[in-house]
Design a protein that fits this description.
Layout (H helix, E strand, L loop, with lengths): L11 E3 L4 E5 L7 H12 L4 H8 L8 E5 L7 H24 L8 E4 L3 E4 L2 E4 L5 E3 L4 E4 L2 H8 L6 H19 L2 H9 L4 H30 L6 H11 L2 H9 L12 H14 L14
Parallel strand pairs: 1-4, 4-8
Antiparallel strand pairs: 2-3, 5-6, 7-8
Helix pairs in contact: 1-2, 3-5, 3-7, 5-7, 5-8, 6-7, 7-10, 8-10
Length: 287
């Protein structure tokens, strides 16, 4: 990606290498819930759903203090900051164009090991996630190494796609999609609730594609091979691919993020159209 002309976001909160002490009125989460979240991740289920339900009311953010010197900036943190800044510029422009009001920029928290969130305690093993309770994206940079080494998805745009996908969940939260889905899920059986989660995730993939198209149009950020990196990442983290790797077979009714083909299709749809109106997974005749 060409990011020389991209600005750095001021919304990156770096907690790496700092000791975190919990306290105050915030929601707490037990070891059992953490284990459930890790098991959920192993089987392709979104662990943030478990943590949010276990962590108490959304918005009741844990209070914490940090000790120790903050980690020094690196090429990776600069990259993350520029990608986040790029998403801020793109979504600010889209919100203005659509008449959706001001775009409320999320914070992106870099951490290592574990960190408190309004959705409970976040663990590195969960991978990147968005917590609607505090409107923050959480990322352990070691995930990028796992993408390259374990999922065979290297490349800077593959990493940018991951960040853009989580920012897509933030956009959903601002637009009220997150709350509507949470309410609907409570009235559904497991299979139907999972299918609704798939639609949420595929819309976030589509939003990531919309961001990529607008970013390239505005700042010519994409280089040859970038989109292929993104499509490879979308393929690698499809529920069917992950479940076959972990247990040898796929169970479609348990999918919460969508198959590899679905994730690729909706990212491409967002990128080709550049239009959020094309990302309505909830009323699409087929996913």
């Amino acid at each position: 990606m060409r990011l020389d002309d991209s600005r750095e976001s001021k919304n990156v909160e770096d907690r790496r290498g700092r000791r975190v002490s919990l306290g105050g009125r915030g929601a707490k989460i037990g070891l059992g819930s953490i284990v459930l979240a890790l098991v959920a991740l192993y089987f392709g289920v979104d662990p943030s759903v478990i943590l949010q339900n276990a962590g108490g009311p959304a918005g009741d953010e844990e209070t914490y203090t940090t000790q120790g010197e903050p980690a020094q900036p690196t090429a990776e943190t600069l990259f993350v900051s520029k990608i986040l800044g790029d998403t801020e510029d793109v979504w600010t422009a889209i919100f203005a164009q659509k008449g959706w009001g001001n775009y409320l920029q999320p914070k992106l928290v870099l951490f290592s090991g574990a960190t408190p969130t309004a959705c409970g305690t976040g663990q590195s093993a969960m991978g990147p996630f968005y917590c609607p309770g505090d409107r923050k994206v959480y990322l352990d940079l070691s995930f990028f190494q796992q993408m390259a080494q374990q999922l065979n998805s290297p490349g800077d745009f593959a990493q940018a796609y991951v960040i853009a996908h989580e920012v897509g969940h933030h956009v959903q939260h601002i637009l009220g999609v997150t709350d509507q889905v949470a309410q609907a899920r409570r009235q559904l059986g497991t299979a139907a609730a999972n299918q609704l989660s798939v639609k949420v995730e595929l819309q976030a993939d589509c939003f990531a594609g919309v961001w990529a198209q607008h970013s390239n149009t505005q700042r010519n950020t994409l280089e040859q091979g970038d989109i292929e990196e993104g499509l490879n990442a979308a393929t690698a983290i499809g529920d069917d691919r992950l479940q076959k790797q972990s247990q040898g077979y796929a169970v479609p009714d348990s999918f919460t993020h969508g198959s590899s083909a679905q994730r690729v299709r909706w990212f491409k749809r967002g990128f080709t159209s550049g239009d959020t109106a094309q990302c309505d997974t909830f009323n699409a005749p087929a996913l």
